[in-house]
Amino acid sequence: MQHLYAVTNISELQNLNPKDAEQVRVAGYRQSGDGGGGDFYWDANSKLNVDQGHVLQSKHAASGRWCRIPSSNVDVRHFGALPSSGDVSNQLQRALDAVKTGGTLHIPAGHYTISRPLMVHQGTTVRGDGLLTELHYSGPKGTSCWNAAQRSPATSMSFYGLNTLVLNEHTSAFRLTGMSYSRFDLLFVHLRVPNTSAYFGPSNGESPYYNVFTNCHASGPGGDSNGCVGSDWGSQDDGDLAANANQVLGGHVNSVDIAVRCQGTGNMFHGQVFEMVNVGYEFDLPPKRYNAQSQGISNDVMGLYAEYAKVVFEQKHETCYFIAQTAMVTGHELMLKAKSRDNCVLLSSHSGQLPMNRSFFQKAVEFKPL
């Protein structure tokens, strides 16, 4: 029978001679109780790659590995990604790589500093503790905090309960390129500087399609014109394709220039709330399709609540068709700014401009069968 040996941290485990103990309990990654500890066993024949979390090398043996006894979920603290411990980009990426064949990665409540893009593999679920799991992203221009590890073919993954703070201009929280059949739930994005976006969705010709977003929020830095976009589903990759056939249910977007920029087709937006934005929904064509033989997109908006959106709906090209029904709109300057009212329908039960805001009426935009 083997006795369980106890050490304080991972460094002490690596300094332990495997001849003295083959089963070891580690109290923490750096210090006792920091969440990065666990139970390990010595495998003298193992040749697994060392990842500094699940697989460790002993300083007393050139061959063999200390192997963590697995638990149901992988915890980022197992890899040294400890809250408020400086830049943990490398440690968090090692944790993501540990579940590259499928699994759940837990990021507990705390402040995590990230300075470079994180790559998420197919089949991975990344789970946090809601607003209290803060990812402070300060990556270089043109990058995003969360990315698909592969873009073609598009991959399925899931994000839940994360609060991503975007700290540098011309960056974003989520880059959706390469993500299809994926879930995004209870996500918070705080855009702390101008010219940033929350859910950035250029297409590579295969994605982002068929994703579901529930209770996903975005908050901008405020100001009259900050260049921020909540869901930026344009076609920046190739100028031809954008996000198609996605579903958005709920979520609150405030203090940005544009709440939703959509150049794709077949997207459905249900029950969103916008406050203090210059444009609510901007529907446009991808740039390359302005002169193409094939033109036109069609999207649906149901149950919008908007306060102080200067322009609630903006149609940038006459073939950007949409059907929209609002729950309440108040404080706006213009309900619809359109290139053409043909083949679009806008229904509203609340003007928000008449005394006591108690006007019930229908607005219909001319429909002409194609």
Give structural notes:
Strands 17-19-22-24-23-20 form a 6-stranded parallel barrel. A 5-stranded mixed β-sheet has the order 1-2-3-5-4. The chain has helices spanning 10-14, 89-98; strands at 5-7, 23-26, 38-43, 55-56, 65-68, 74-75, 103-107, 110-114, 118-120, 124-128, 133-137, 144-148, 158-166, 172-175, 183-191, 197-200, 212-219, 229-233, 247-249, 252-254, 258-262, 268-270, 273-283, 297-315, 320-330, 334-337, 345-348. It folds into 2 domains: 5-68, no CATH class; 74-357, Single-stranded right-handed beta-helix, Pectin lyase-like (Pectate Lyase C-like), CATH 2.160.20.10. Helix 2 links the parallel strand 6 and strand 7. It contains 2 helices and 27 strands.
What coarse outline follows from CA principal-axis ratios? elongated
**Which CATH class of the largest domain applies here?**
Mainly Beta
Strand content: 35-45%
- Calculate Rg over CA atoms: 25 Å
What is CATH's topology name of the largest domain?
Pectate Lyase C-like
Q: Which residues sit in consecutive blocks of at least 5 with pLDDT less than 50?
A: 354-362
Mean pLDDT, to the nearest integer, reads 90
Helix count from the secondary structure assignment? 2
Query: Can you tell me the number of structural domains?
Result: 2
- In N-to-C order, the SSE pattern is EHEEEEEHEEEEEEEEEEEEEEEEEEEEE
The main sheet comes to: 6 strands, parallel, barrel
The helix fraction, in percent, is under 10%
Number of strands: 27
User: Which structural class should the secondary elements be placed in?
Assistant: mainly beta
User: Strands across the major sheet, in which order?
Assistant: 17-19-22-24-23-20
